[in-house]
Every structure is written in structure tokens, then in C-alpha cells.
Amino acid sequence: MESDHYNDQAIIGGCSVPVRVNRKSKAEPTTVNVNGILIGSSDVVIFAGPCAVESHEQLLETAKTVKSGGGMILRGGAFKPRSSPYNFQGLGDEGVKMLRDISREIGIPFVTEVMDTRKVEFVAEYADMLQVGSRNMHNYPLLKEVGLTRKPVLLKRGMMATIEEFLLSAEYILSQGNDQVVLCERGIRTFETSTRNTLDLSAIPMLKHLSHLPVIVDPSHGTGLRWMVPPMAKAAIAAGADGLIMEVHYKPDEALCDGHQSLSPDEFTQLMYDLKKIAQAVGREILMPQHAVV
Amino acid sequence: MESDHYNDQAIIGGCSVPVRVNRKSKAEPTTVNVNGILIGSSDVVIFAGPCAVESHEQLLETAKTVKSGGGMILRGGAFKPRSSPYNFQGLGDEGVKMLRDISREIGIPFVTEVMDTRKVEFVAEYADMLQVGSRNMHNYPLLKEVGLTRKPVLLKRGMMATIEEFLLSAEYILSQGNDQVVLCERGIRTFETSTRNTLDLSAIPMLKHLSHLPVIVDPSHGTGLRWMVPPMAKAAIAAGADGLIMEVHYKPDEALCDGHQSLSPDEFTQLMYDLKKIAQAVGREILMPQHAVV
Amino acid sequence: MESDHYNDQAIIGGCSVPVRVNRKSKAEPTTVNVNGILIGSSDVVIFAGPCAVESHEQLLETAKTVKSGGGMILRGGAFKPRSSPYNFQGLGDEGVKMLRDISREIGIPFVTEVMDTRKVEFVAEYADMLQVGSRNMHNYPLLKEVGLTRKPVLLKRGMMATIEEFLLSAEYILSQGNDQVVLCERGIRTFETSTRNTLDLSAIPMLKHLSHLPVIVDPSHGTGLRWMVPPMAKAAIAAGADGLIMEVHYKPDEALCDGHQSLSPDEFTQLMYDLKKIAQAVGREILMPQHAVV
Amino acid sequence: MESDHYNDQAIIGGCSVPVRVNRKSKAEPTTVNVNGILIGSSDVVIFAGPCAVESHEQLLETAKTVKSGGGMILRGGAFKPRSSPYNFQGLGDEGVKMLRDISREIGIPFVTEVMDTRKVEFVAEYADMLQVGSRNMHNYPLLKEVGLTRKPVLLKRGMMATIEEFLLSAEYILSQGNDQVVLCERGIRTFETSTRNTLDLSAIPMLKHLSHLPVIVDPSHGTGLRWMVPPMAKAAIAAGADGLIMEVHYKPDEALCDGHQSLSPDEFTQLMYDLKKIAQAVGREILMPQHAVV
């Protein structure tokens, strides 16, 4: 499929895995440190928050829900990659600053997406973790630019990317000196139309087999259906995921984007309770803030 | 995609689900009875056995392993759908009879595939459950023929079939008067090549949302990789599967087909032990024979 | 993807091509003879007719249109593989006999689909050519059964079959002693939903590169849209197809199936006129009946 | 699949097409003017050149071949999006300047890819047309940035983008005031592995049905195989393409990238000769430079 050949790689189970991300180059799993929270350890880490930052109230209320429900890292988009130019494009710089303010107020670090090389420096100044979204997994200048920062990076799999290409994109970041990369499976595009994407949970064991980087799963985008998030979240942890990233909104029915796939506060809290049992069944714990209600 | 329209259906979550399989037509889940073993109850049922019946010794030894490891139903192919006409095509009638003999000797019911309408009567006479394989999910004369028997049917999803088409194929069976149908997700074909297929675990909650029929998962064909069977088996149960069907061989390295995706006896026993914990974490139990060692 | 290995094959351009269908085993292209009409020669052969046989009037009028418009072989379904059991399933035996009668009355041979091994003998007695449809490309007992007849076979590519699997299915037929096989590309299943399938015209040069068998294209099923049939029909001939199979109906808006992708008589005649020019631009002719109006 | 809704659109044949690109908003086809060469008129325009600019000699010799063979616009990459960070990444700024110098020396305009928003101003200063590549079709900041220039844009379809998403990406460019956009089909990703991508020629009539923008095809990336470029190039023109973009290299076997899919000078000249006949068969001409040898 891909005509390129590269020199520095390991062949693992028939796959070519580039030099820095492959498991042969580094026996121990990498742990990624987001303001003291470790991803890739024996504990499972939950990221949660709204699709987009919409307003101070929305973000504040949702962030409180996330923290009290047991989420460790807040997610929220300020720069939104929308298929149509006429859809809400996010609050931009103002949204990033709002995330920073509320994150500090509540005491929960946050990850937010950066799409434009010109914005990497700005976002890296405010955010605790940079997200490279699915649509930009093949955006190599952006990968290099986040690789030059010293911020942890959440790299989402392209909806059309093979496992091999996904690891090559991670390698772009590591090749610039930044090894703090978390891989995120978020659903691939197939012929099936009953779900928004097809969540490829086999990517979890495969990525962990090939690479030392931590792997998390996004069941919200992976399914596009609120009621399908709980079973797929459980399945992801059972399959060995190091964490989950989920959309939660304090009022899903009023969300400016992705409301149909966002959990309500109650649904989130209930799910966290159920996830604890699954984590224990595979010998792990869900990492929780001190005062979580779950 | 599909141009047909049919009269008798329910629309559930945007999908057209035909009349007999849809959940609106029957509120209670269907339980399928295979010689007294119920599939679709609160207990999870494990099917296991070799890809193909190869010899009396191979089948007997593997069947013992299956039963002692906690498997409730033996699987094994006598008529094998092989991509190449020059590959081992299975033992045919003799294989079916061998399955029957060993099944009775060990005390474990069995399921085996039927591919040809002319063989349905014969296989139904010997087997406890008829399998319609992935390659024949669109073989409508075969679906009608197994629908005319009074044997339970294991219907595997076509590797290219949408959820809607899968349920329409089940409807073919029910429309002939046989409602004893178990649906099996076994991986779909995508662009990804690191696994044999892409196991679509979101099919589990989707099928159970749309239909009252039980749903099981085949992680062996779904991944094509022995070491990936355990994490995906756990994930399937966490996502709500009513059972699993897995390839087990007493000597995987000597198997005539699919040895690379077959579990050894020890791997199977260890996995069963782990699956018990996952089942309990979702409020279920793995149904086990009385003298299982797990 | 496929774990099987077979002994007798040639490797051509990275593909494994089994022994009887591969081009290395037979330098000359195979020509398939349907009642004296040769497919695979320098002339391009057009198959046309309705999706399904509906009535004597419908078939007779459409057959006349096909012949006067320049079609050489009539197509029409008597056994229809429908996704839903509640859709029109075809006229069955009666439809086959009607095809035979009208074929002889008009003086045009016909091809019709067979889906059930039990019906192969009957259909082979009446039809000039047997079709194995897309949904049955992996139905190996059926492939063997048509391989045992001495009738030419039109084998359609499975909607999610690789080129390698397609040739292996053809090999099943040849392995039984019948080398009169025409391969038909009819669209594959992809993520794209604006067309019914994605017509893979690169299959034409690829199949002719790997195999000596003739290759035709079905732009009606390949697109599912009447207005898209003409450009794709032209493209297929430009890419080297040995023929086309198209749906034509004397009254498309009243068709019991696939009316939206069927050409009207006038559209068919106009298209045939345009196809002549394309064929000549690639150094070929469209084979035409003596009294065609085009 | 996509959860967004946008206000300003037309529904054409079941597809939602945004306001500026849709055919209902503008009855006449758009012609795109690249230094006086019109794309989207009755004449077919050929773009050709190397995958990557490698050296002055390589580019000069290939550019001469392109022009003498009948190509109207030179293509060549200076910024190369490579899956691996360890592959040749292109000559960068120097490559863009070399393209400009040789373009002016030979008298042929050129198109080159831009991947980084920070480079759009620079590339727009030198190039006659800007290319947004397949991997960046969903890179919305880049689309907006090229939309703010007054240079024509060649927008390639993402390898897993639907037709609807492709048109939405074009709309991003038009929404910034730049309507000089040429759409390019370059193959989509499917399960088929015998070709690099699956060239979706049905995209040509579909895009022209939905939009007023011109459509060209890239058979080099679409197939990944040199010998398959000629039949697919012919097919593209037969299906109604307004042009082609093809990889030509003066010494394909020594190319630093994509040599296996690049035509030699002789192959290119022969193909151009054959394409003239196809164009005439559909009532068009290939636009040629005054002193072309074809």
C-alpha cells in the first residue's frame, strides 16, 4: 500500500514499526505525565469533557461533573475541525484561555486540540496536553511542531489510518525529541453505517504489542451514540486500554456539537462506577481524584 | 445502499429491522436451547473446538480439553469453505459422524457448519446446532433450508455485511418458522491488514438494541492471531456478548487449518479463568460443566 | 488476510494466482463461447435485459429492445437473491422457461442466475450461460457444481472480495473441468454512500494482467444510478473490458426491482451508439446483431 | 456518519451539497485559469511531472519531456508528505524556486503542494497553482489559508473522504472568496490490496452532477502501478474527466519516490497519442502546447 521504505525499524509480527516507537527499542512501557497524572501505569485514567467549549457556565459545570465523577483530565475543544465551514468553529483563543482558567479553578488538568502549526506555541503555553485530532494524523508539519514542544501529546488515529501509519505518525513526534505521546483509538471508517465509525478495539492489544506507548480509547466518537458509550467503554478497559476519553456535557440536548454522543452527568457517574469493576477484573484500578463521589 | 423496501419492519434508531427479529415485536430476549444449554440467558456460554475435524484422536483430545476447561458446546468443521480448491476441504460426512460420536462419548453438544442445501437434512440429523458461515450469510436458499429444520442455528455475520443485512438474513430463517437463531459477530473486512479481520464489538450492543436474538462473538476469526484472542474475548463479554466461540486445538502447531489463531489447551484454561472475572464484573456468570477445572 | 496456502500457483506482480486461471499457465486469452458468440475476442459483447423476469410482455418487449439496440446476450433473473425475504423473489422455474421461450423466439441467447446447487442441473438444461452472483462468489459447493456442467459461466465478483479471492473462486470452476468462465466486476463495497457500490474499473487491467479469462463490467449494479451507467460503461470499455452487462427495462418506472438503475430503450440505444466510438478509439468493435439499428 | 448540519446547501440526488460549490447555485461550469490555461472547458488538460523535485537536471529533463509530450502544466513536489519521518522530505523552499525557474525557462506553468499554513504565502508567491494533497483534505486551517490567496487550487480527495466531505472541503476554499478550485480524484482506500488505492472513477460523473467545479483524475496515485496508468487514464477521460495529473520521470528507476508508478518519457508520449483518440470519441480534444510531438 505504502511505497516508502525506512531504514530504522523493527519487524514485529509482520508489521514494520519505526525505531523510536517500537517495543524492541524500549522494553518498559512509557508513562506519559500530565501535570503529575501518569498515563500508561497500572492505573486507568479517564479524560472527559464537552466536545466544544461553549461558555463559561457550560465549561465550569461540566468540569465539576467530570471531577466529581472521577475524571482525571478535562477535555474540551476551542479550535474545532468541522466538516462544514458554516458550522460552529469553536471559541478559538478565548476558549483556550477559558479552559486554562476553569482547569485551575477546579484543579484538573486539560487537553485541547491544536490544528494549525501557527497556534502550537500559543496552545502549548496554556494547555497541559496537546491533542492532534483524527483529521490531522497525516499532517506532518503539525506533528513535527508538537514534537518540538515539551508538552505531552494525545495523538488520535486517523479514521482511515492503518496501525502502521498511526505508529509512523507517532514516530514523527518522537523524532523531534518528544516521547510523551499517548495513542488514541477513536473508530475507523468502514462500510457499516449504523454507527458513526467502527471502534477498532483490536487496536489496543496490537498497539501495545508493537509499541511501548500508552493507548486510550474514545468510545464517544467511536460509536457516535450515547447509549453505546458504556458497553464500549467497558470493552476497551477489558481489552487493556490505559484510559478512556469521553464526551460529557452538563446539558447534552443543548450542546452545540456532538450532543447525541455526550453523556449526561448522571450517565457519566454511573458509568464510572461500572468501570471500576471491569478494571479490577483485569487487575487494575481506575485512577480517581480524592473527592470523587464514585 | 440497498434498494429494496419491505413492508413488515420496525424502525429502531434509524435502522429498518424486519418484523420477526426486531425487538419491538418481542419484548423478551429469545433464549436458544441447544440440548438443554440456554444461550441468551444471564449466563455466558462458551463454544470451543478445532477449526476442522482432522482425526479421531485430534477431535477426542480437543473435546476433552474443551469440556474440562469449561466449554459448554463443541465446535468443529467437517465441511470447510476454503478460498482455494486445493486446500483441505474437511472430512465431510465422515467428519459429521465423528463429531456426533465424540460428542456423545464426552457428553457435550456440538455445532458444525453446513454449506450446501443438499446437505442440510443430513447434518440436521446428526448435529445439535447448524452453523451458517460468514461466506454463506447471503446464501438465501441455504437460510431458508435451515429455517425449515427444527435445529438451532448459529448465523455468522458476513465479512461484508451491514448490521441491517445481517438481521435480514436472520429474518430469512425466522420467516420459515425457526426462531432458534444465535447471531455471531466474527470480524468485518476493512482496510486494516495487521489483523485478519476487524472485530466489530459495537455490533454486540447494536444487535441487542435492535433484536431479541442472542449475540455471541468469535475472537479467533475476528483477529486471526492467537495472542489477541484473550483480550478480545474479555472485551466481548464486557460489551455484553451472550457467549464466545473460539478455536482450540490440542496441538495448534500441527493444525491443518487456522493453527495460528487456535488456543492451546493451557491457554484456553487460563482464559476461561480470566473470563469468569469479567462476566462477574458485568453481573453475569460463565456457564460451566459440572466437573470443569476452572 | 487469508491464512491458506496453495501449492499450484504463479506469483504475478505480488499476487498469488492459482494454477488454472493464471496467465502464465496459458499465454493466449481464453474466449468463452455462448451459442456461437465469442467473449474475449477483439470484439466487445453487450449483455442487457431486465433485473428480473416479471411477465411475458415485459420480457418480450425488453428482449426486442435489447436485440434491436445491439445487445448480443439477454440477461434476466428468475431466481432473485433479495436481502429481504419479503421482497419479490423471482418467478423461479417458470421464469427460466419464459427466458428460454423468448430467447428462441427473438433469436438471442440468455444468461440467468442460479443460486442453489439443487437447481444447477435444471437451469443448465434451459440456459445458454449460468450466472453465479456476487452474493454467491464464496459459495464453493455452487462453484463446484457449475464447474461440473459444460455451460459457460458468468462469475460476478463478491462485493467485498479481493482480486485474489475472485480468481480463486474462478479456479474452483476450472478445477472441475469447465474453463468457460467470464469474470464480471460489479462494484465493491466501500465507505462511499453516494453510489450503491464503488465500481472498481482497475479490476479490468488487473484481472487481465493476472489471468487469461475474459472480463466484463456491470455498470448498473456498480453505480445503482441510471444516469451514471453511460459514463461508466464508456470508461469500462476504455479500460479494456471485453463486454458489459447492463439492466434495461421497457418501462423502468414500473420495474419490480432495480428500476432506478435500469436504462430505458431509448437510453440504451443512444448509449450503444456512443460505445461504438469508444470501442473504436481503443482499436475494437462492438459486436452487433445483423439488424441492429445502432 | 457526520453529525453536523449546515444551513446553506442544496439537496441533489440525496446528497447535501453546500451553497457555493453546488450546481444549483451556478448553472454554468466553472473554468479555472492557470496562467491562461483553462481547466473545465471542452478541452482536456494534462498535468505531468515527477513525484518530487530531486535535482535541476531531473526536473529540467522531465519538464522538457512533459511539454514535448503534450502536457500543459508541470507538477512536482517540494514539500513531500511522507508516511515516515526518515524518508526524503523534499527540497523545500529551494525546490519551489527550482520549479519556478525551470517553469519559466521551459514555458510551462506549474502546480506544487503546500502542507503548512505558514508556507502558503511563500508558495503562492512562486507557484502558478497550489495543491492541497489527499492527507490534508481535512486540514481546515490550510483550506482557509489557500482560500485567502488568489491562486488557483488543486484539491485532492482524501483517501477516505466521501464525495460529500470532499465538496465541503472545497466549500471551505470558496467560502474565503477563492472559487478557482479544481477537484482531483486520486483513489480511495478500500480492502483491496493489489492496487495502492482504488481509483473511484464514478466520482467524476458524481462530482460533475453535484458541482460546477472541474474534475481531474490522478491515475498514478490511484493505482500505484505504472502499467496500469494508461488504461485508467483512458477510462477517466471516457468517464468525463476535465484533465489528468500523472507522474512522469526522466529515469523512473532512479526516482527518489514513487518510481514504480511513474511513466517514462516514451510511455508518456505513447499514452498522449492514445488519449487523443479517447477524447475525440467523447467529443473533446486534448489541449496541447504548440510544438508538442504527439
| Rg measurement of chain A, Å | 18 Å
> Secondary-structure element order of chain A, as H and E?
EEEEEHEHEHEHEHEHEHHEHE
Q: Oligomer, anyone?
A: homotetramer
Structural class by secondary-structure content of chain A: alpha/beta
Distance between the termini of chain A: 47 Å
Q: Mean pLDDT across all residues of chain A, rounded?
A: 94
The neighbouring-strand order within the major sheet of chain A is 5-6-7-8-9-10-11-12
Largest interface: A-B, 44 and 44 residues
The largest β sheet of chain A comes out as:
8 strands, parallel, barrel
The geometry of chain A reads as: globular
- Tell me the number of strands of chain A: 13
The number of distinct helices of chain A, counting runs of at least 4 residues, comes to 9
Portion in strands of chain A: 15-25%
What is the percent of helical residues of chain A?
Answer: 25-40%
pLDDT below 50 for ≥5 consecutive residues: which ranges of chain A? 1-7
